[in-house]
Design goal:
The complex is a heterodimer of chains A (226) and B (165).
Chain A (H helix, E strand, L loop, with lengths): L9 H12 L4 H7 L9 H17 L21 H6 L13 H5 L2 H4 L10 H19 L3 H13 L2 H15 L13 H13 L9 H15 L5
Helix pairs in contact in A: 1-7, 1-11, 3-7, 3-11, 7-8, 7-9, 8-9, 8-10
Chain B lengths: L6 E6 L11 H4 L6 H20 L3 H16 L6 E5 L2 H8 L6 E7 L6 E2 H8 L11 E5 L7 E8 L7 E4 L1
Antiparallel strand pairs in B: 1-3, 2-5, 3-6, 4-5, 6-7
Helix pairs in contact in B: 2-3
Classes of the chains: A mainly alpha (226), B alpha+beta (165).
């Protein structure tokens, strides 16, 4: 990450983790080194960029519009930089139905991504998808919370630990993670159910505050950082 | 016995006497030789750690990202994942409410990769994966690391049974 998050707001850690690890934000993050958090506009730029990536990654492919089954880009084709940055498949391209449908089928979907024989690309796209949905959830999108629920349901043990940790920080509640153990099947299913029923959006919106905190922290690191 | 008092623990679902426990990167086909890929990953991580030790801020950021990535993805870690805590290993062994094995491993701490020590030393963001107190044995379980004993653990409060030695 480009900033030191120790001793700061825990949500800033998740924001910086996602923002600094998604290649689409590389240029913007470099620009923010020279930005002033109070200046009008910077937070808006970052928010717009996040919004674009979030929708680009989470909209399910409309297979009916495209003969080869790939996503049909409405309006304009993807830019060359985006195509290069995303030479792998999106996580949602492995899926066919909405997050709510997956969350309603917890028994059959449990641990579906965590199979040895799975394509390793599924693993790395799921990681990227988790980061995108951290940003989406921090911007108040209830769907992002639902997608995190899908990853929680289908993912590996460490990813479950992280997603539960994030959800506890974001929406509160008992984590059952006070003991240093990985979450049990019961805890995971309980959280999946909580996410399925989760409908409150406005109290999630932390993004603008976090962008400002990020810009302030970037300025304090110094020019030697990349 | 290895003569080292350093111990870490690993939970897994199966165990037999001559079992080779190898890192995920050695078990995954990325279209390259898994052995070469694993060596490259180890070389890169070693470089990041030494550059971070020398005070390079950029390397610290890369190392922070890489540790998070290695702990989040199933296929790319060049380490056999262990924990400093018995309870963590036990929870992996018991996952799904079925019995499993906890391996007690002794060896040279300097030959492994201590995620938690690195995080503490350089104030790296660890999220909840810090709870795992992970210690990575590079490539596969073998010298200078030795499996000292193996316990079969079972859910619902049943007592553990020593299966090795």
């Amino acid at each position: 990450m480009r900033i030191d998050t120790s001793g700061r707001d825990p949500l800033l850690g998740y924001f910086a983790w996602a923002f600094d690890n998604l290649p689409e934000f590389d240029g913007l993050a470099n620009l923010l080194k020279f930005a002033d958090s109070e200046a009008i506009g910077y937070a808006g730029y970052v928010r717009d960029a996040i919004l674009r990536v979030y929708f680009d990654e989470t909209v399910l492919a409309d297979r009916s519009l495209s003969p080869d089954g790939r996503r049909a880009y409405l309006g304009q084709p993807p830019s060359l930089s985006l195509t290069l940055a995303r030479s792998t498949t999106r996580y949602v391209d492995f899926l066919a139905i909405s997050p709510y449908d997956y969350l309603g089928e917890a028994e059959t979907q449990f641990g579906a991504d965590d199979v040895d024989a799975n394509d390793p690309r599924l693993d790395s796209t799921a990681y990227r998808f988790m980061l995108v949905n951290f940003l989406g959830a921090l911007d108040g999108y209830v769907d992002a919370v639902s997608w995190l629920g899908v990853l929680l349901l289908r993912g590996n043990l460490n990813r479950r630990l992280t997603i539960i940790g994030f959800l506890v920080t974001l929406i509160g509640g008992e984590s059952d993670l006070a003991e240093p153990t990985i979450p049990s099947t019961e805890v995971v299913l309980e959280w999946v159910n909580r996410v399925r029923l989760f409908r409150e959006g406005p109290n999630l919106a932390h993004l603008e505050r976090l962008i400002r905190a990020y810009i302030d922290a970037t300025g304090s690191v110094g020019d030697e950082q990349r | 016995m290895t003569g080292f008092s350093f111990r870490v623990y690993r939970g897994q679902k199966s165990w037999f006497g001559q079992m080779t426990v190898s890192a995920p990167s050695l078990r995954t086909n990325f279209g390259h030789d898994p052995g070469i890929l694993t060596e490259q990953l180890l070389l890169m991580l070693g470089g990041l750690v030494s550059r971070t030790r020398s005070g390079e801020v950029g390397a610290r950021g890369f190392l922070e990202n890489k540790l998070l990535y290695l702990q989040q993805t199933r296929h790319e870690s060049p380490f056999v994942s262990c924990s400093h805590e018995w309870s963590i290993a036990q929870s992996f062994a018991l996952y799904g409410n079925t019995p499993g094995y906890v391996l007690t491993i002794s060896g040279d701490p300097a030959s492994g990769f201590d995620f938690e020590e690195l995080r503490n030393s350089y104030s790296l963001f660890g999220d909840t994966v810090s709870h795992l107190k992970e210690f990575g044995v590079p490539r596969r379980l073998g010298s200078p690391f030795v499996v000292e004993c193996v316990d079969l653990v079972a859910p619902f409060g049943q007592p553990a049974v020593r299966v090795k030695p």
